[in-house]
Task: structure prediction
Amino acid sequence: MLFLGIDGGGSKTAFVLEDEKGKELGRVESGPSNWISTGEVETRRNIASGIEKLNAFPDVVGGGFAGAGRPEGVRFYKDCLAQLLPASRIFIETDAFISYVGAIGLQPGLLLIAGTGSIAIGRRMDGSMIRVGGWGPAFSDEGSGFWIGSKALRFALRASDSESNPEFVSAVCKVLQLNSIYDAVAKWKSGELSVRSVAGLAPLLFQQYPAEPATQILNDAAEQLRAIADTAGARIGLADYPRSIAGSVGSQPLMKKLLHEKCGIEFHPPLRSPEHGAIMWARSQAQPVS
Result:
C-alpha cells in the first residue's frame, strides 16, 4: 500500500510518497495551492503538476491545505484529488493540522507556528484540536513576521519624521525597494507592498539584534508568542505536554533563545515535516475499524 502526503500552501505544494513500511519513494514540489489566494484553476493545475511527477499512484492520500478550514474548501480539494486519483482514499485537513501531526504526532501537545502569520495548534487528551490566534494580519498574527515587519516599518516612519536612526531607515527602504520610506504608504494602498513583503523585514531585525529597534521589537514579539502559547496551553488542560515551534520566525535560533530566556518556554524542533504529518494522519484514518 502506498501513501501520499501533501502540504499545500500559499507559496508552494510539497508531495511525499511512502510505502507501507514508511520508506520514502518520491518527493516533488509544485506551485501554490491555496485556492482562496491562488484561484481554483491554478490550484488544480499545480496539484495536478505535482501528482504527474510522482513515480507511482497512491492508495491513500492525506492532504493538508491552506484554504481547507471551511467545508467548501474541503469539498474543493476532495473533488480535485478524486478527479486526479479516482482509485485512492482521500483525507483532507488544514495545513496547520498536518503541521501539528508532523511536529508532535497524534499525542496531546502544542505547536506554535510563527511565519508570515502566527497561530497555536493544540491537541487535548480526548483528541480534540484547539487553535489560538491566526486570524490574519489585520486583527491577529501577533509575533509573526508581518507583525515584526509592520513594527519595523512604523519605527522607520517615526525615525524619518524625527530625523533619527537614518541607517535603520535606509536598511528598511533597501529591503522594501523604496526610494523613500514615505513611499510605503502609497505602495501599501496600491498593493505593491504586501503582507509577505512587509514580513520580509523580519530577517533584517534578526540580523541587527541587539541594536535598536531590533531588540525591543523582537523581545515584544517573543512576549506575544508566549501569550499565544500560554493561552493554548491553558486550553489543552495538561500539566505537561510536548511543545514544538515552526515557521520562518519560530525556527530562528534567536527567537527560540528569547522564548526560553525571557519567557521561560522551551520548544523542540518539529519531529517531521508537514507532508509526513499528512501521511501519519491518513494512515490513522485509513486503518480498518476492528
